Amino acid sequence: EQGLQLLELGGSVEEDYIRIARCFEATRQRCCRLEQDGRRAREQLARVEAERAALEVKLKHARNQVEVEMKKRHRAEAELEKQERKLQLVVELLMREPWGNEALSREQCSVISFLAGQRLGAALAPIRRSSVVDESCQSLLSHSDISYDRTEDDV
């Protein structure tokens, strides 16, 4: 547009050429600045992509670790429940047998009576749950919030 305006002014030819040359120089400088900006943006993009790739690797490792820990926890809870059932059976057996009360000390009898009266599973459950992460609350880091689906990454 500036070039057309310069040509329409109709001044001396030398002045017109000087104005056109200045316009071309300003355009060339603007192109150089845009090229530098593009180069900086590409460099920044490369850095960010490298950081993203590193974070994806960390995320993959974290997901795997969470999965391993969840499996360990489930195995430990299953083993605990199995042991609780065994202990409940032993308590029930000791309480039913008449010789059991005679062979046990007074303290042992009171402990067994307490456990039998409280229903062993209910007595041990609060102890077990207090040492474990409460999953009833939806925390920010809850394993249920972790998505193993990669479709969001495509966006």
Automatic annotation (TrEMBL):
Residues annotated as transmembrane: none
GO BP, one annotated term: Rho protein signal transduction
Keywords tagged on the record: Coiled coil
GO molecular function per UniProt: GTPase activator activity
Lineage top rank: taxon: Eukaryota
Coiled coil: 38-97
GO cellular component, one term: cleavage furrow
Protein name in UniProt: RGAP1 protein
Origin species: Certhia brachydactyla (short-toed tree-creeper)
